[in-house]
Write a structure and sequence with these properties.
Length: 463
């Protein structure tokens, strides 16, 4: 048995590694050789700015909780910016909004640095500046996901839409690693304020790259049949079809002949309610996953403060990001809908177990080891949640659900970061380490509930 199981395991790992590479080659052929790489680089400021704010404020004030609160304000503002960008996805002239954000972002960062230099750690002055910085911090993940739709519609490659969304999930994880590593290097060499300055410069470059890329001239995907799907009937067409059907039926069978639609049956209401819950649960899972990531970062900040190594927060966070990115790459291989649901449940359960280890370490070496174990459970959950969100809603509603899921994760990061850092400052690191366990439990509960509701929806039984 061992002689046959080992080659099978190696074969599966090899296939899992080849899947993402094949997707990247096909996407590069459809969108250009450099575009998949650009989607990674433009993500860096989105992680660097909150980390820079967290480290700078924590050092200036000596309070991890205040640093976490300011970083959470940036994250919430960025989530609102992402929702606005998603709402403007169907506008034919979207570039003025992106250009405005690119111009205002460095100005907001400059104002934040001035506030830090002039007024120090005064919360009344810091929080509005941090919130404004987040409001003009574009969520490039949302922009790239929407841009892929225009690219693939223009090249008539609707079959690559699902691989493009998997690719973006991997880029989310890899971008976090690069951003955290770069933020740590800048904080150690040049100081935490340099992280914000470099992030502002990268934001300007990212906006310029996306505006000058040939895909910026493509029209937005305004209609769902741009990717090979038939259009939804208009209101006039539905009215005309209803009148034609009424003419063919006996009067006794059409109580809605005066324009009143038939009342939905109990089974139809139940089915609609279950489908709505199926669309909601990936959003709940994204909130829980964001809270897991944020609470881990909050616990790391409290731990680093206890050992007088706040500047090294980004390095520690990058350890979890590195293993998370590696696991996300392996998890991005195409799988069926059933295996994707199972993967969500299994990796969420593993994240609960891994999060329990955060209360164990007493020194930096132990923390690095634990973070290296927590990371591989986060990346696959990220890929699974976005994949489930894409399956739970058909196009074009899936675009809206994906945007909401991305912003919901940002809100979860802010909540987990604040709760973990504040409780850790009040009652110690062990208390801060409880929040990742609670957050991972929310992800697991959402996964189990999704599988349960999907089975009921597929079989049409039960509540």
């Amino acid at each position: 048995m061992p002689s046959t199981s080992a080659p099978q395991l190696l074969g599966r790992l090899s296939a899992a590694a080849r899947g993402p590479l094949a997707d990247s080659r096909r996407l590069a052929a459809a969108g250009g050789a450099l575009y998949p790489v650009l989607t990674l680089l433009v993500r860096l400021p989105q992680t660097m700015v909150p980390l820079g704010v967290l480290t700078t404020v924590a050092l200036v004030s000596g309070s991890p909780a205040l640093g976490a609160l300011c970083a959470a304000a940036v994250t919430v503002g960025s989530a609102l910016c992402g929702l606005a960008m998603g709402a403007a996805a169907t506008w034919r002239r979207r570039w003025p909004g992106l250009l405005l954000v690119g111009v205002l972002n460095p100005l907001a960062v400059w104002w934040l640095l001035r506030v830090l230099a002039a007024q120090g750690a005064e919360p009344a002055a810091l929080l509005p500046a941090c919130l404004l910085t987040g409001l003009v911090l574009p969520q490039m993940g949302v922009v790239c996901r929407l841009r892929w739709q225009s690219l693939l519609a223009g090249s008539d490659r609707g079959d690559l839409l699902e691989p493009s969304q998997r690719h973006e999930s991997v880029m989310d994880a890899v971008g976090t690693v690069l951003a955290a590593g770069l933020a740590g290097l800048l904080a150690v060499r040049l100081g935490p304020a340099a992280v914000l300055a470099v992030a502002a410069a990268l934001t300007v470059v990212s906006v310029a790259v996306l505006l000058l890329h040939p895909s910026a001239r493509l029209p937005p995907v305004l209609v769902p049949w741009a990717l090979g799907r038939p259009p939804a009937p208009t209101h006039a067409a539905r009215q005309r079809r209803r009148r034609q059907s009424e003419l063919r039926l006996p009067p006794v069978l059409v109580p809605w002949a005066l324009g009143r639609p038939p009342a939905p049956t109990h089974a139809a209401r139940q089915r609609r309610r279950r489908q709505s819950e199926l669309r909601l649960l990936p959003v709940v899972g994204a909130v829980g996953l964001g809270a897991l990531v944020g609470s881990v970062l909050g616990a790391v900040v409290v731990f680093a403060s206890s050992v007088d190594a706040v500047v090294s927060v980004s390095w520690l966070y990058a350890v979890a990001g590195l293993t998370s990115a590696a696991a996300a790459v392996l998890a991005s291989a195409p799988v069926g809908a059933g295996r994707l649901r199972n993967r969500w449940v299994v990796t969420a359960a593993a994240s609960v177990l891994a999060a329990m280890l955060l209360s164990v370490p007493d020194d930096a070496a132990g923390m690095v080891l634990v973070l290296a174990l927590v990371g591989p459970t986060v990346g696959p959950v990220l890929v699974a949640v976005h994949g489930i969100a894409d399956q739970a809603a058909q196009r074009p509603r899936a675009t809206v659900l994906t945007t909401v899921t991305t912003s919901a994760m940002s809100v979860g990061i802010a909540a987990g970061l604040v709760l973990s850092a504040w409780s850790g400052e009040q009652w110690g690191y062990r208390t801060a380490a409880l929040w990742p366990v609670l957050s991972a439990s929310v992800v697991l509960a959402a996964a189990l509930r999704y599988v349960h509701r999907w089975q009921r929806t597929a079989t049409g039984t039960g509540r």
